[in-house]
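re: ur question from earlier - yeah i can do the single chain one, its not a big deal. heres the input i used so u can compare w yours
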Amino acid sequence: MNTAFTKVFQCRLPIIGAPMAGVSGGLLAAQVCKAGALGFIAAGHFQDLSKLEAEIKLFIDIVERSSGADCNARPCIRPSIGFIGHSSLSSPKHWENYEYILEKYSPMAVQFFAPSIITRQDGTSNVDLAHKYGAKFIAQVGSVKHAKEAIQHKVDAIICQGSEAGGHGLRRELANSAMALSSQCKQLFQDIPILAAGAIVNGQHLASALCICDGAVIGTRLWASHESMGDKILQRELTKENSCDDVVKTAVFDQIENEFKDFRWPYPFDASGVLRNRTTDEWEGRTSEDLDGALQKTDLFHTYKTAINTHNPEIITVYAGEGVGQIARIDHAYDLILQMEREAIDTIKRLQVIIN
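and the output i got, formated as C-alpha cells:
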C-alpha cells in the first residue's frame, strides 16, 4: 500500500499503532512495526524516564532480532514515541528529558496531543526540537482549528481523532467525527499525510479511511492484543458482547479522577471514550455540580478508589472506541495488522467489482 504517509514515514502499511498510555510498550510497538506499520511507544505523562527508556530498549532489541523472513518491516526501524502534551513538557526538566530522548534514541517520529503544540518562552516548540534531531512530528487533533495551528508549526503529519475514538480527546460538544474531520483536513492540507483515528478496528474500516485520507490509527483493537500492557481484567471487557451503543464520550471519569491523580486532565481534553457502566449510568447527563457534591458529601470518592484497587470494570474507566463491538477475542498484534491489510485489500477489490 502506497500513500503519502508510507512515503514520508518509510513504512509498508498506512497504519499507526496508537501510543496508548499504560498499554503501548516496546513489545507492542515492535510487533506492529514487524508487520509493516508504524508502532508507537507511549510516554504518557512522561514522568518516569527510566521506564520509558526500558521500553525503548526493549523495542530496539526486538527489532534488531526480527530481521528474518517473517519480518515485513522496512530496514532501519527506529522507535516512535507518543506524548501527552499538557503534562509531558510541563517544566524545564521535562524539556531537558524530551531533548535527551530525541538525542540519544533518534526516534523515527514523535506524536503529541492534548495539546499537540507546546511552545517555550523563547518561542521554540516541541516541533522545532523534534526536527532538530531528525524526528518526524505528528500532531493529533480533534478539530480543524487545532489542525490549522499544527500546520503553522510545520508538522509532518496530522492525526484526526474523531469523537468515536476511545481514550482522551476533545469534549463531545467540541469534537467531530473521524471521517468528517479527516476529509476536511485532507482537503485543506493536501501536502502532508492525514490519518483518521476513531473506531477503526478492521480492514474494512481501514479501506474506508483510505478513501478520504492517507492512513489510519489503531487503538482499541491493539489494546485487545496479547502484547499490550493494559490491565488484563479491564482488557477482557473489550471482547464481551458489546456494540457501539455501549460506548460513550464522557467527562464523568475525569471529574472523579482529577480529584486524586497527579496530573489533572485540563479542559477541553477532559473527556474520554469509554464503555458504559454503573458510573456512567448514574452520572452521565447530570451536572458537574451534582457530581462534585457527591464527591464531597457521599462515599462516591472512596468507592471509586476502592474499585481501582480491585480492577472493577463496573465502576472504573474502561477506555474503548465505538468499534469495540467488532472485537471478538484477544489476538497477537502482528497477526492483527496483517489481517487488517488483507481485509482492506479485499474490500478495495470488491469495490472495484461494484464499479465494473
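The chain is about 40% helix and 15% strand. not sure if urs matches, ping me
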